[in-house]
Description:
InterPro entries: AcnA_IRP_Swivel, Acnase/IPM_dHydase_lsu_aba_1/3, Acoase/IPM_deHydtase_lsu_aba, Aconitase/3IPM_dehydase_swvl, Aconitase/IRP2, Aconitase_4Fe-4S_BS, Aconitase_4Fe-4S_dom, AconitaseA/IPMdHydase_ssu_swvl. It comes from Propylenella binzhouense. One of its GO terms (molecular function) is aconitate hydratase activity. The protein is of the alpha/beta class. Helices cover 34% and strands 18% of the residues. The strands form 11 sheets. Strands 26-29-30-31-34-33-32 form a 7-stranded mixed β-barrel. Strands 6-5-4-9-10 form a 5-stranded parallel sheet, sandwiched between helices. Strand 1 (11-16) and strand 2 (19-24) form a beta hairpin. Helix 27 (719-725) crosses helix 29 (785-793) and helix 29 (785-793) packs across helix 30. The protein starts with 10 loop residues before the first strand and ends with a helix.
Amino acid sequence: MSKPLDTFNARRTLEVGGKTYHYMSLPEAEKNGLAGISRLPFSLKVLLENLLRFEDGRTVTADDIRAVASWLETRSSDREIAYRPARVLMQDFTGVPAVVDLAAMRDATASLGGDPRRINPQVPVDLVIDHSVMVDYFASEGAFKKNVDLEYERNGERYVFLRWGQEAFDNFRVVPPGTGICHQVNLEYLAQTIWTRDVREDGQAITYAYPDTLVGTDSHTTMVNGLSVLGWGVGGIEAEAAMLGQPISMLIPEVIGFRLDGRLPEGTTATDLVLTVTQMLRKKGVVGKFVEFFGPGLSNLSLEDQATIGNMAPEYGATCGFFPIDNDTINYLRSTGRDADRVALVEAYAKAQGMWRANDTPDPYFTDTLELDLSTVVPSLAGPKRPQDRVALSDAAPAFVKAVGDIRGPDAGSLKAVPVSGANYEIGDGHVVIAAITSCTNTSNPSVLIGAGLLARKAHEKGLTVKPWVKTSLAPGSQVVTDYLEKSGLQDHLDAMGFNLVGYGCTTCIGNSGPLPEPISEAINDNDLVACAVLSGNRNFEGRVNPDVRANYLASPPLVVAYAIAGTLTRDITREPLGKDKEGNDVYLRDIWPSAAEIAAIMRQVIGEDLFRTRYGDVFKGDEHWRGIKVEGGLTYKWSDSSTYVQNPPYFEGMTETPEPITDVHDARVLALLLDSITTDHISPAGSIKRDSPAGDYLISHQVRPVDFNSYGSRRGNHQVMMRGTFANIRIRNQMLQGIEGGYTVHYPSGERMPIYDAAMKYQAENVPLVIFAGREYGTGSSRDWAAKGTRLLGVRAVVAQSFERIHRSNLVGMGVLPLVFQEGTSWQSLGMKGDEMVTIEGLAEVKPRQILDARIVFGDGRAETVPLTVRIDTLDELDYYRNGGILHYVLRNLVKEAA
């Protein structure tokens, strides 16, 4: 951390517990030129402090800082700022490629004559292995152990690599498998609300204090917003940039204030609240904006309730869902076993900075607001396909019947049921075949977990059972959940209802639900049934949870148990009985629903800081499986040519200490002509690997059976698999091939149709550069790193579009690919392009940000046209990345240069 310029004379010291902390004081900055900033939203105060602390006159200027203050006048801004989060959080699917890149940088450093030990994360990085466990075994005492054994068998290569990284890199920690979901581990242990860093300045050792901020390689990083930690999910390249000390470019956001009043009524849960909030904010439209919660209702929500709301920010479309620091923050930090000195610092710092919320705190100024009276929230589900499609529990049954027609088509007919082979029951439309207490959203909240346990206890005591066609599972977000469920005796009753522990991690929500029993799967698919899943998660998109399930409903954990007992969505469980007790009497949901007082009483009895201190006391050590992994390699990784999961990427092959001048693009061929709104899902490999695909051919050639293909996500550390899957989406439409879906193109001059990967390799063999042409909003969607990495590895030198999604544009630059934009009114369609053209772009060695360059396009019929294009390299930092061939090359050369 370099010493800031401090244009606004903001630097001060704070004494807490006998220790001195240096910090950038917002009240002092307000006195010295930033008038009115005390009324900024709390989330923008965090951004402002970040700019003050990193003011260097280049990446952060005084005008950038003034722009945050002037936001108060317009409540929006088109100014781009450089934001540097304090740390990075990764999960294993998205974290493996980042560690692969670090390992490759060490190899490249050694080849340049540098010291590989220089290559380490420049900010703290925590990687939590939580996305690999699947629910193969369930509803049995041994399910957890069997699932863990399978997890290690399937992911052994990846775990060997991460185990090496855990020992090889400084500033990098790995939370082993079986510990919990990254977001819950972050909330319960990693996050500190106020971060500190020891540095040397002017020869003296000092400690800085500043807000805990982060970016994560998972969209639900926002759960920690409930602990007043500003963080959100990003793509891998952005995370790598932050990890290597580079700023993240972002617009000063609009901030939507969400006022909460009143208190939740008896019988409702935090899940019901968050589904209501999600529906409201989706309707409002908050994509790309910050949401900040305020109002007296905050005092009636637990911090875990706030974290539940923050978690769902991706579902309501916001960048984050932020809650300010208040007494609940302090109580939560204390009750989860955080260090007493840190807790004292959080309170003192927040009060000194004007970041403390009390009941008499004036409301901040917002871009716009909306409000909710908590007393109006009702028990709810969301489905069958989107998190924002909330339906009141009392309306769920008729809503499902209507949905069947939408899912199966206008000729759906009436609901149907068929016998299950080898069983004494039928399965039909609306039957719940998966009931899963899963996902970070709810398993971080003890009120709904205890509620589910109490409902299971009451149901068990009355003799109710789960229907035989329901696959039940409990995948808590941390081991603390198991501790308090066992301590309360509730786990025994959950076990009796089939909700045995299956693993700690992200399971059903990401499609790791495992297969359904074969007779049930056959009955569903052979008869076109609309089967259902009820899960306590955050994602229920079509085809995501399980390929056999076409209607997925988000619900609170107690309702998950209730629907497992009911066995169907066609029953109105608010009015009809769930089943019969031991004496044959009807049992209704109201008979077994736990009261808020019952839940609170058990929480007081079984949850204390001792649980958290014990579980997180040695959190990085892992179980015997993890400790037993043999680590190969030392400073550099011992790559295995036979591995199909982890390979040394070719980014640094032939790299020199100083970058060669960028060569112009001469006679490039067109790899694809694409229309508007091409998403990163279209570009980046995702989902299952098809047998008859370039990636499938590669795996088979390496003796991998199709049944063991696993997914693109699990193989993100192998560029050979991922580049073969780039632009291979089955729904992408390359307009060079009219009426054909899938990742195909036409090779010229041969005119041969082939997969995009095969064409790209043929062009590389012919030493022919490539360009891609697209329409508006190119690269929308999740900021997938492989959308840019794959583009680079296919040999694409430039992407020409009518407009770019901001993050994908930045990612392309970060991989050394040039983004170019047509002038308004021009497109590849208006030029009459067919895909048989050759393209020349000159002047790249001296290119400047936002410069206009001419592209010469020679058409298939021999005519030529010169087309002006805007270079979408927007900043001097991005120009440095591009000139170096990418951000990784830029950082690597600087580290080698500093050590010389």
